[in-house]
Design brief:
- With 578 residues, the protein is of the alpha/beta class.
- It is 26% helix and 22% strand.
- It contains 13 helices and 25 strands.
- The radius of gyration is 31 Å and the shape is elongated.
- It binds one RNA strand of 76 nucleotides through helix 5, strand 6, helix 7, helix 12 and strand 19.
Length: 578
RNA sequence: UGCCGGAUAGUUCAACUGGCGGAACGCCUGACUCUGGAUCAGGAGGCUCUAGGUUCGAGCCCUAGUCCGGCAGCCA
């Protein structure tokens, strides 16, 4: 889109309607009158932490409701007492709220509808469309058949309506042990869709529910519960991921047989990203195996981890917008995500100077024990952010990478005899390289030009590079945590025989180090976001204290020089024939 | 070997429903710059999975294939 006016800062106010196959379908539904409004829901099961894949779903659900002037519900699909916990309810609420999806006063729990679901089950029983089955789980599996062979009718399939009513009541009353009986829908044991072969609607579980306590001992299955939840809440479009495609006929069957309000289910592809994993099971394995530091480890694609890493809700929404919505199974390059966060932080992050790998510089013609304060711009993308004072003195630290004794071609930074600018300070020229007994460079002797204070030369001479620095006396030492991809391969499952994805863990996914940072950083609080100039974007970690500052690297800056240097080293030369 | 989906640039998506295949990210060039950042300008990159068919005209419709994904929990 090249005609976007550059003047509009952030046009967050105008809710621009995106375009994809789901929105197209909704427009069509509105046009034909199948629905007269839009009402969506995000229905997580409270059994895990949310990850970036859920953010995609949330953006689709919430974004669509917002764009069409409709409503959005947050609903916990808590129909299985064995797997669900309050801890996850809390973390999910926190994450959805953080993302900015607003459910207003519509926070619901599927389990709150258990009574209605129970009553509705009798409608089906009375129609002869549901029956109590005494088959064991093993027998039921056996009689279900296979994709190529039809199943066999349960011997309990033709129980009388009266007996079914009686038995189902007694199931609820707790007369039978776990697994003894189920309530099943009577559909078609020969259906090519396995899900239609008399699926279970209720199972017996004498278990305590995180919300309902011991009130129930029968619990509804997903297929029975979900459509009812949608119907009860007046959902118009029940959006879910592709693996539920085969469930749609069943979703529709229940609602049709019940003759109640009937939302439309539409499925989309879930998000996959390269160089990471995206499942609850693997998060558990990585945490339990101490490969990461917890569910909010900044290397994990959990929303808690991304928040700690320094990602903003806005950048995540932008990411979701860019990857779009389709039915194709796809794998997104994390570079897209990185680009989104760079774009957001570039506009809003406070700039600071921090030196990661210090090399001492002595300004030999600068007076000893004398200091001064220079003005530095807080954010060149946002002049309203103002300026700050940065202390300068005779002894400084610069980045080791910013000096080369023997500079390669196109290297513009400091080298013997060459002049560069210290950002917001002075031009300096390297006069002498000091080495230790082993020949390692330990210190640089430079001279500065007092006329260039602030960074400009009155005589108009130019330098080809500007480097960052800190005053050795004033700098604060802080811990840095530099992150890379969690895995070394785009597809972590691409492992040698006998190995699994764990073998593809990147040993350098976390490098703990330290830096010298200008004193302005002293007051930082967890969650603060900065650009360390010429280095990358950093976020103050949750564990950071004034006594020990800790910064997570959210993402590096783009590094064109690294590319130049890399391509110069690569032997990939072509000789063209004349 | 049954059923349901899917296949368009390196990647993720578009293509006003049958009318000259575009964008973003990535990549390459250049301009500008007190961040080798940002910004701006330009460029390379496609037998639209294959083979037939319908049509004046097919990425789109039809037929037959190929490849990929999902489905045989009393999980969601």
């Amino acid at each position: 889109m090249n005609d976007t006016p550059d003047l509009s800062i952030d046009n967050d106010d105008s809710v621009e309607v995106q375009s994809d196959f789901i929105r197209d379908a909704i427009k069509e539904d509105l046009r034909t009158g199948r629905f007269t409004k839009v009402h969506t829901r995000f229905p997580p099961e409270p059994n895990a932490y949310l990850h970036i894949g859920h953010a995609k779903a949330i953006w689709i659900d919430y974004g669509i409701a917002e764009e069409f002037g409709g409503k959005f519900n947050l609903r916990f699909d808590d129909t299985n007492p064995m797997r669900e916990e309050q801890e996850f309810v809390d973390s999910i609420i926190e994450d959805v709220k953080w993302l900015g999806a607003d459910w207003e006063d519509r926070l619901f729990f599927g389990s709150d509808y258990f009574e209605q679901m129970y009553e509705l089950a009798f409608v089906l029983i009375n129609k002869g469309k549901a029956y109590v089955c005494d088959l064991s789980p093993e027998e039921m599996i056996e009689m279900r058949g296979t994709p190529t062979e039809p199943g066999i009718d349960s011997p309990y399939r033709n129980r009388s309506i009266e007996e079914n009513i009686d038995l189902f009541r007694r199931m609820k009353e707790g007369e039978f042990p776990d697994g003894a009986r189920t309530l099943r829908a009577k559909i078609d044991m020969a259906s090519p869709n396995l899900l239609m072969r008399d699926p279970a609607m209720y199972r017996i579980r004498h278990a305590e529910h995180h919300r309902q306590g011991n009130k129930w001992c029968i619990y509804p299955m997903y297929d029975w519960a979900h459509g009812l939840e949608d119907s009860i809440e007046g959902i118009t479009h029940s959006l879910c991921s592709l693996e539920y495609e085969n469930h749609r006929p069943l979703y529709d069957w229940f609602l049709d047989e019940l003759e109640i309000y009937h939302p439309r289910q539409i499925e989309f592809a879930r998000l996959n990203m390269s160089y990471t994993v995206m499942s609850k099971r693997r998060f558990i394995e990585l945490v339990d195996g101490k490969h990461v530091d917890g569910y909010d480890d900044p290397r994990l694609p959990t929303l808690a981890g991304m928040r700690r890493r320094g990602y903003t809700p806005k950048s995540i929404y932008e990411f979701c917008k860019r990857i779009g919505v389709a039915k194709t199974n796809s794998v997104v390059d994390p570079a897209v995500l990185e680009n989104c966060i760079r774009e957001d932080l570039n506009k809003h992050a406070q700039r600071l100077m921090a030196v990661m790998n210090p090399l001492k510089v002595v300004i030999t013609n600068y007076p000893e024990d004398e200091y001064e304060e220079l003005d530095a711009v807080n954010n060149p993308e946002d002049l309203d952010a103002g300026t700050r004072k940065v202390p300068f003195g005779r002894e400084l630290y610069i980045e080791q990478d910013d000096f080369r004794e023997d500079p390669p071609p196109k290297y513009f930074r400091l080298s013997p005899g060459r002049e560069v600018r210290l950002r917001y300070a002075y031009f300096i020229k390297c006069e002498k390289v000091i080495k230790d007994a082993d020949g390692n460079i330990v210190e640089l002797h430079c001279t500065y030009d007092p006329e260039t204070r602030g960074g400009n030369a009155p005589d108009g001479r130019k330098v080809k590079a500007t480097i960052h620095w800190v005053s050795a006396k004033h700098a604060i030492e802080a811990e840095t945590r530099l992150y890379e991809h969690l895995f070394t391969k785009p597809n972590p499952d691409d492992a040698p025989d006998g190995e699994d994805y764990i073998s593809n863990l990147n040993p350098h996914s976390l490098e703990i180090g330290s830096c010298f940072i200008e004193p302005y950083a002293a007051e930082t609080k967890p969650g603060d976001k900065f650009q360390f100039e010429r280095v990358g974007y950093f976020c103050t970690d949750t564990t950071s204290t004034p006594h020990k500052l800790v910064f997570n690297r959210t993402v590096t800056l783009r590094d064109t020089w690294a590319k130049i240097e890399k391509s110069a080293k690569s032997p990939n030369q072509f000789i063209l024939q004349p």
